[in-house]
Amino acid sequence: MFQKVRPSANSRQASQSQDQKRKVLIRNYLKDKKVLILDSSSLSRSSLGSLLLSLGAKSSQLILVSTLSAALEEFQRGIPAVLISEYSPGSGNTSELFRRQRSLSPVSTSETSADTTHLLSLLMTGDASGGAVGDAARLDVDLVIVKPYSKDGLRELISQKIEFKLSHSAYSQAIRRTKSHILEGDLASAIEAFQIARSIQPATSRFFTEQAQLGQKVVRTGGSSRSIAFAPSFDSSGGRKENFQCLTDLYEVLLKQKNYAGAYRAIQKMMPYFSGESEKVSELFRLATVTGNLSDLHQYYPLFLSTQNRSEALIQTVSSAYLCGAKNYSREKKSSLMRDYLAKAVGVANSRTELATPVLRQAIALLVQAGITAEARAYLRRIPSESSDYLAMEYLIANGDRDSSGQVIDQGWKLLGRGIQDPVIHEILISRLMERGKRDPAENLAHEAARLWPEQSERFRSLTAAPSAETGKAGS
Question: Which of 209, 287, 355, 360 suits 112 as a labelling partner, its CA being 20 to 30 A distant?
Fold first, then answer.
């Protein structure tokens, strides 16, 4: 019969001593740090506050808030070294809190080399979706905690993270140097720093091994788009935060090398893990346009619609991308796709009055050029009536509808007589005058147009060089 082996008194004492040392280590880490907890649930706030106090935080340094605005006000009084926040409490986004907290980090050569040993950040979420994971990686958050959680489990996770920060500072510094050298394209220094990191903590170096290999591949191929094939995939086994950061670093390397095709492929892989961040969504549309992947734009429209706090730069980039795609489909004689992209361009720009009219003008011009004047008139009704833009686009549509140059010429002179100045009116009228053999008035009008819009002077002068073949195709 087997006897149960019990730990000796010495081993129990050693374990208790080690546990006590650990508690002292964590207490000393927290005792002088300002702690801010943002949670919309009063019960959750109280529970988290109690947990931090039991670990060693001081009650005088513990701040509990329920709203983002209250947290931002508290940041004005002093940025907390320990930040625990819900992913998106109520309205607003907590990303700004984590960015401001990182401003406490000493930085050497780049943001990636910031030392965050003295900072602790936790992101709480009720949904383990890619959005929370992606934001956590981008913001370099220490822990992502999915609600509901056990108090003991959370205590252990926080304790482990603090221990890691304190006992692995040399490892962390070596990793930061590795990332910085990769971004700078200094492969030799990156490998040297990485070897140091691996010798210190080999058990957790998988992500950085992959990252160093990626950097090596990028440098060796001179920024070839094939390097993206070495990016690790996201899987259910964990490590999504690290792999996401790996892609982020690769994306920055490719952009720095002006390898836009590779950067586009990288950001495509990253986007499902962003929660509609305006800047990144804008970059996705910009790179799709720059690389000629215009057919991809249709699948990104829901992403734009889900983006909160859409900036004017985002709206302008997205509407321009769809216009570029519409022009491409117009050249390819793909009327249905052209009209779909025009509808999206107009829909995007419609939220900004100052952007809507220029986009509507271009949409109308493309439709008139394609002979779809009925749809062009529908867009015309969205422009304020009797404005110069409205009258110019109305004239453009009328020019596309009418075969008689005499009627178009009469209408054009009437508009100019009313003081309506627009390059579209001048262009159509010059072309129609040349068509009727009236060179002198056409040349006089071309000189006037060149004076009013000098950036288009060559265009206006070319209209009088020979009978126009552009009638009915004048644009904005």
Answer: 287
